[in-house]
């Protein structure tokens, strides 16, 4: 047996560690006070790697952002959305959908705040965030369509209601967005004219 497969395994482990270090640096950069620069250069410096290493791992700034969003989603428990969509009762699906977002917004609250603020200044980041948020809108359309006709105005209201900004504002300094999820669910049920 040749040692090559073993070396490839060690090499892949090193690549995975570098990738994780870059993503950790990207998260840290987002919550660093006074920093408004979210560039490949800034992430590379924070991760103590070269710019070409970041490009080799991710290919481009938008792909780095996509990987960061995927990592945040994984750590924030977004896999639970699949369970929400599998619920036979659409009202239970809505409750799990909202609870999942409450946990997700809680898991990385400072990063979500920072991403929202930086999105105002950075059109590329804003486009990436908006594309991700549209997935939430489509999920709402799918669940609401099982309860009643999914009118655009209703979906728009529920989309605003389930946004990070709404959860964050309702949570304030004393609660987490996860603690706000029942309030958001009651409001969503009212919008859908369901018993509260």
Q: How many independent structural domains?
A: 2
Helix-strand topology string: HHHHHHHHHHH
Q: Beta-strand percentage?
A: under 5%
Low-confidence stretches: none
Distance between the termini: 66 Å
CATH class of the largest domain, named: Mainly Alpha
Count all strands and give the number.
0
- The value of Rg in angstroms is 20 Å
Which sheet architecture does the biggest sheet show? Answer: none
The residue-averaged pLDDT reads 90
List the helices and strands and how they pair.
Layout: H1 4-31, H2 40-47, H3 51-58, H4 61-75, H5 80-86, H6 90-107, H7 109-121, H8 123-147, H9 152-161, H10 164-171, H11 177-191
Helix pairs in contact: 1-2, 2-3, 3-4, 4-8, 5-6, 6-8, 6-11, 7-8, 8-9, 9-11, 10-11
How would you describe this protein?
79% of the residues lie in helices and 0% in strands. The chain has 196 residues and is mainly alpha-helical. The chain has two domains: 4-63; 76-191, Tetracycline Repressor, domain 2 (Orthogonal Bundle), CATH 1.10.357. α6 packs antiparallel against α11 (177-191). It is elongated, with a radius of gyration of 20 Å. The N and C termini lie far apart (66 Å).
Main features:
single chain; 196 residues; mainly alpha; Tetracycline Repressor, domain 2; 2 domains; 79% helix; elongated
Give a quick rundown of the structure:
The chain is an all-alpha fold and 196 residues long. The protein folds into 2 domains: 4-63; 76-191, Orthogonal Bundle (Tetracycline Repressor, domain 2), CATH 1.10.357.
């Amino acid at each position: 047996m040749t040692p090559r497969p073993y070396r490839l395994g060690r090499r892949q482990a090193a690549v995975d560690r570098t990738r994780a270090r870059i993503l950790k640096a990207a998260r840290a950069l987002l919550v660093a006070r006074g920093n408004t620069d979210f560039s490949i250069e800034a992430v590379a410096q924070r991760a103590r790697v070269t710019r070409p290493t970041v490009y080799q791992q991710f290919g481009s700034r938008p792909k780095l952002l996509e990987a960061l969003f995927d990592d945040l989603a994984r750590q924030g428990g977004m896999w639970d959305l699949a369970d929400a969509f599998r619920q036979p009762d659409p009202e239970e699906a809505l409750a799990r959908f909202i609870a999942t977002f409450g946990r997700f917004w809680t898991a990385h609250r400072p990063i979500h705040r920072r991403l929202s603020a930086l999105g105002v200044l950075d059109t590329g980041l804003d486009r990436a965030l908006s594309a991700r948020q549209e997935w939430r809108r489509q999920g709402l359309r799918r669940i609401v369509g099982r309860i009643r006709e999914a009118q655009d105005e209703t979906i728009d209201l529920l989309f605003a209601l389930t946004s990070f900004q709404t959860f964050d504002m309702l949570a304030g300094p004393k609660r987490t967005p996860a603690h706000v999820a029942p309030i958001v669910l009651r409001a969503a049920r009212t919008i859908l004219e369901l018993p509260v």
